Amino acid sequence: MRDQRPVSVGLFVTCLVDTMRPSVGFAAARLLEQAGCEVNVPRQTCCGQPAFNSGDRVTTRALAEQTIAAFETFDYVVVPSGSCAGMIKSHYPELFVGEPDWAGRVDRFCAKVFELVSFLTDVRRVTHVTAAFDGTVTYHDSCSGLRELGIQAQPRKLLASVEGLTLTEMPDSDVCCGFGGTFCVKYPDISNAIVEKKTANILASGADTLLAGDLGCLMNMAGKLQRDGRAVNVRHVAEVLAGVGETPAIGQPPRNGEGSRS
Fold first, then answer.
1. Strand, helix or coil for residue 167
2. Residue 65 and residue 103: Cα distance in Å, rounded?
3. How far apart are CA 113 and CA 76, in angstroms?
4. What totals of helices (H) and strands (E) does the chain contain, helices first?
5. Is 6 left (phi over 0), alpha (psi -120 to 50) or beta?
6. Counting Cβ atoms within 10 Å, is residue 197 exposed (0-12), middle (13-18) or buried (19+)?
7. Cα distance between residue 252 and residue 241, in whole Å
8. What pLDDT, on a 0 to 100 scale, did the predictor assign at position 262?
9. What values do phi and psi take at 77, rounded to 5?
């Protein structure tokens, strides 16, 4: 008799989702379950990207070993972030070069790591969702997801199936928003100049909602829009695809009776 065991997925929640926007994690879990997956959330910590980008390979290596040990038993590892998925999939192998005892193990692990929307469309062959969203959205292609993982058509494909949603493209949707993790801390003036151009393009689209697949980018753009007094809602794409768009947009205060984290 053929094994009917469901596909097991380890959900790598990411630091920002855990601390700033838990609704993204719940939306990701809902989408994965709808795609026929058994979702597991093991004990986890940072993927090591901030340390890696700062040149601290010792700390990055320790975090990579923890992540591999926590997730390697699952069929797949799914991440609701192009930057964190890109860090694991593209850069973990660099940390173990020349170590036969580790190299094969790391390669096998990285081969089953996917960004959330890419996993749904490219692995699980999801072509539509049952969500509804009343509004016009525009989509920002985050750098890591686009350039390291080739994520561009996948979110648009699923958004096209959302009832009531209209997608309108902004100019230069594939240009950086200026976040870049530690980049915005090291070079705040340059970062602000970049996000100023990005928000001008968002406004030019005429959309009332901005979507993307990376929470860091979304927080950066939401902050700039709010500082400038612009009434554009900002959400993670998973929230819309999962039909949990009733949660206050990123940076907006919780409604009465809701928790303090949005």
1. strand
2. 12
3. 6
4. 13, 8
5. beta
6. middle
7. 20
8. 42
9. -120, 125
- Percent pLDDT > 90 in the chain is 86
φ, ψ of residue 156 in degrees (nearest 5): -65, -35
Tally Cβ neighbours within 10 Å of residue 95. 19
Note whether 93 and 106 are within 8 A (CB). Answer: yes
Structure pTM?
Answer: 0.93
54 contact partners, CB below 8 Å, separation of at least 6: 182
Q: Are 64 and 48 in contact (CB under 8 A)?
A: yes
The CA distance from 89 to 111, in Å, is 7
19-38 pLDDT, tens digit per residue, is 999 999 999 999 999 999 99
User: Which two tokens mark 71?
Assistant: 């997730």
Three-state secondary-structure class, residue 36: coil
Sheet holding 233-236, edge to edge: 163-167, 132-139, 209-212, 233-236
User: Structure tokens of 166?
Assistant: 């209209």
Tokens 């694991």, located at residue: 88
Would you state the structure tokens that stand for residue 234, as one six-digit string?
Answer: 């900002």
116 touches 145 (CB < 8 A): no
Residue 82: which of 119, 27, 32, 45 has the closest Cα? Answer: 119
Query: Do residues 163 and 132 lie in contact, with contact meaning Cβ atoms separated by under 8 Å?
Result: yes
Can you name the residues that pair with 235 across neighbouring β-strands?
211
Q: What mean pLDDT comes out for the span 86-115? A: 96
**Bridge-based pairing state of the strands 113-115 and 163-167:** unpaired
Q: How many CB atoms lie within 10 A of CB 82?
A: 28
